Amino acid sequence: MEIILKYFPDLTEEQRKQFAALYDLYIDWNSKINVISRKDIENLYEHHVLHSLGIAKIIQFRPGTSIMDLGTGGGFPGIPLAILFPETKFHLVDSIGKKVRVATEVANAIELKNVTFRHARAEEEKQLFDFVVSRAVMPLADLIKIIKKNISHKQQN
Fold it and tell me: How does DSSP assign the chain, residue by residue?
C-alpha cells in the first residue's frame, strides 16, 4: 500500500481505506478463483494496482466520463481507476464469468458506486464510452478493430 501513497499522496481517507482493503480481498478471492498468478499475488500493489493507475499520471478523467475496461479479469485496471476517479463511470467487461464475479465482489466489498460489470465478449458490448482501457488482452491492432465501435466521438470540453 505504501507504494500507492508514494505516487498518489493526495488520496482521501475513503480512497486510502479502499486501496488498503484490496490486498486481503484479492488474497481471499485468489485462493478460490485464480485471477492473479499465485507467484505474483504478494506484489499486488506494485504489479497490478500501481500499473493500473499509471494512466492517471498522463490523463485526469473528468467527472461523468465513461470508461470501459475490456478484459478486466479480476478488475484491473478498472477497480483501481474507479477508486482514484470516484466521479467517473467504469464498465468492466470480461468473457470469463468467474473473473467478473471476483471483480464484482471486490467492488461491492469496498462499496464502489461508480462501477458496472458485464460478462460478455468484447464483440457483444454495444454501449459507447469516452475511453476504453485494457491490460494486454491482445495485440493493440486487434483490440482497436474490436472496440472502435464503442468509442463515443462527442467532444470533451
Answer: -HHHHHH-TT--HHHHHHHHHHHHHHHHHHHHS--S-TTTGGGIIIIIIIHHHGGGGT--PPTT-EEEEET-TTTTTHHHHHHH-TTSEEEEEES-HHHHHHHHHHHHHTT-SSEEEEES-GGG----BSEEE-SSSS-HHHHHHHHGGGB--PPP-
Q: Check whether 157 has a pLDDT greater than 70.
A: no
Render pLDDT for 98-107 as a digit per residue (tens, 0 to 9).
999 999 999 9
Give per-residue burial for 89-98: e unless 16+ CB within 10 Å, then b.
bbbbbbbeee
Decide: pTM greater than 0.85.
yes
User: For 129-151, what is each residue's pLDDT tens digit?
Assistant: 999 999 877 888 888 899 999 99
Pairing outcome for strands 131-133 and 89-94: unpaired
Q: Which of 96, 90, 95 is nearest to 68 (CA)?
A: 90
For 27-31, what is the mean pLDDT? 93
pLDDT band at 9 (very low <50, low <70, confident <90, very high): very high
Which amino acid is residue 42, in one-letter code?
E
